[in-house]
Amino acid sequence: MQQPPQFKTSIQTVAIYATVRDRAGYLVSDLTKDDFQIFENGRPVEITTFSNAVVPSTIALLLDMHWSSGIATRTVGEEFSVVRDSAVQFVQTLLPEDRVRIITIGHGVTASPLLTSDKSVLRRILGEELWPGADLTPLWSALHISMDSIARESGRKVILVLSQSPDGCSSEKYGETTTDFFRSRFCQVDDGDVVKQARAQDFMVYAIGTQSTGLQSALVDVAEDTGGGHFHLKKNEDLETTFVQVADELHHQYTIGFEAAVPDGKVHKLTTRLRQNGLTAHARQSYIAGPR
Amino acid sequence: MIRPLLAIGIGAGLCLPGSGVTRASHQPSPVSLALLYDSTMPPVAADVRSDLRLKLVLDVVAQSLANQDIVRVGFVTGDVSWTRTFRAEERPTLYSGVVSNISVAIADRLRNPALCDGLYGAVDVVAHDEARRAVVAITAGRSGGNIHSFDELVAHAREAHVSLSAVHTPWPGIYSGKTSSEQYLTYWSHFPVSPHALLARIATATGGTYIAPQPHVSGDLKRRLNKTLAAIRQTE
């Protein structure tokens, strides 16, 4: 088996994790380095690292436990079970080397102290530590906390968020009142801060939105920019299937590297193209060069 | 292994309000109590000094202390902060002694408490005391961000011969507070796990006490806490 590449920190090598699909939407995982073209601010760059080996991930699994009646027409208790069981199934499909930290949005934000590849521990957490949400949803703050919780890990870092309610800091438009306490605790971070952090610390963000609420457009933008993905659950679609789809995607990505440009601290635009017709690549769309 | 439990009635030194003082056949052994208070329960935006529930709880506990009893109070959020040991003779100043020396950061309170780890630590707090060792949690029953599982907690408590009791304090909202017990139970019956089931499980497994809340009953918390403390004292 081909070994996944190591990215040294002395020279900034920009890591791109690319997902390739054919016209039918199937994952394609047998391409070579020559099949790819990477452009930085519109100019082609030399690919210095390439692999299609399966790369372990460090994942913050962020579960919004508010009920939106978004997963078909179930009771809140049934919705709860769907979320828990789907998350368990996601854990089951992970590689032995993948590590996960479970974070919940319910009564504020609660992060597990455990970042682990032990699936029995993860199942135990999902069985004992999920509770229905109360109060408002501090979405952006929770994403910030999630990224912080795995920021120092090496390799591919992924945020997978199940979003079932809009961010509470802008809740007036949803007919709720943001309290001063909530605002002081959770509204210091907005979507712009999350984008900056994701770029600066090389996160991939995957977002799953439930039917009635959907995904906030800013969250979709974050997922697009970081090369992750976003999924809007429609009626009768299965949350478990979507979770497994994310896991499958993570296990079929290409790892591509190139040397960063002048460390100017600026956002550099990235484009990933394929030479073959009929294939599409999905990858991060930017990075920050050098000092961050 | 749980110590054999022997009901001996209420001891001579017991000062539980509303209970008659009876003469026991022998002097009951003192109680070493770790009181774990869930600081993520409302009001989360206020200092502990303005928490009327905490005042009520500490007043009830103070009145129950007798003879050589000792109590420590822990406040759980993501971590636990413990007070020093208070002795029975400090009954009149228990509340002021606790709140004047404890600080629970408000920023840490808007989350689920690490209740399981807090209880695990509470077992350690009393584990080496030469007394009946008991932990009482005042909690809404939610728990998150734990290193230990509930199975590990139960095993740890049993090994240390510590009983775990819970006085369940439902939050106001759609599933508690203004609703009846029946409505509360109906709400949670749709979930695979509920706070009352979790608390009842650890209490039953460790020889402790769990009394289901009756939110619509005035003075329910005080009544249940008194019953819980009396039950601890009645076991030997």
Layout: helices, strands, pairs:
The complex is a heterodimer of chains A (292) and B (236).
Chain A: E1 13-21, E2 36-40, E3 43-45, E4 49-51, E5 57-64, H1 76-92, E6 99-106, E7 108-111, H2 119-128, H3 139-150, E8 156-163, H4 180-186, H5 191-200, E9 203-209, H6 217-226, E10 229-232, H7 239-250, E11 254-259, E12 267-274, E13 280-282, E14 286-288
Parallel strand pairs in A: 5-6, 5-8, 8-9, 9-10
Antiparallel strand pairs in A: 1-11, 1-13, 2-3, 2-12, 4-11, 6-7, 12-14
Helix pairs in contact in A: 1-2, 1-7, 3-5, 5-6
Chain B: E1 31-38, H1 52-64, E2 70-76, E3 80-82, E4 86-87, H2 94-99, H3 115-126, E5 132-139, H4 150-159, E6 162-168, H5 181-188, H6 195-206, E7 210-211, H7 220-234
Helix pairs in contact in B: 1-7, 3-4
Structure description:
The complex is a heterodimer of chains A (292) and B (236). By secondary structure, chain A is of the alpha/beta class. Helix content of chain A is 27%, strand content 27%. Chain A has 7 helices and 14 strands. Chain A has helices at residues 76-92, 119-128, 139-150, 180-186, 191-200, 217-226, 239-250; strands spanning 13-21, 36-40, 43-45, 49-51, 57-64, 99-106, 108-111, 156-163, 203-209, 229-232, 254-259, 267-274, 280-282, 286-288. In chain A, strands 7-6-5-8-9-10 form a 6-stranded mixed β-sheet, with helices on both faces. In chain A, β6 and β7 form a beta hairpin. Chain A is globular, with a radius of gyration of 19 Å. Chain A starts with 12 loop residues before the first strand and ends with a strand. The model of chain A has no long low-confidence stretch (mean pLDDT 89). By secondary structure, chain B is of the alpha/beta class. In chain B, strands 1, 2, 3, 4, 5, 6 and 7 form a 7-stranded mixed β-sheet that branches. Chain B contains 7 helices and 7 strands; from the N terminus they run βαβββααβαβααβα. In chain B, α1 (52-64) packs parallel to α7 and α3 packs parallel to α4. Classes of the chains: A alpha/beta (292), B alpha/beta (236).
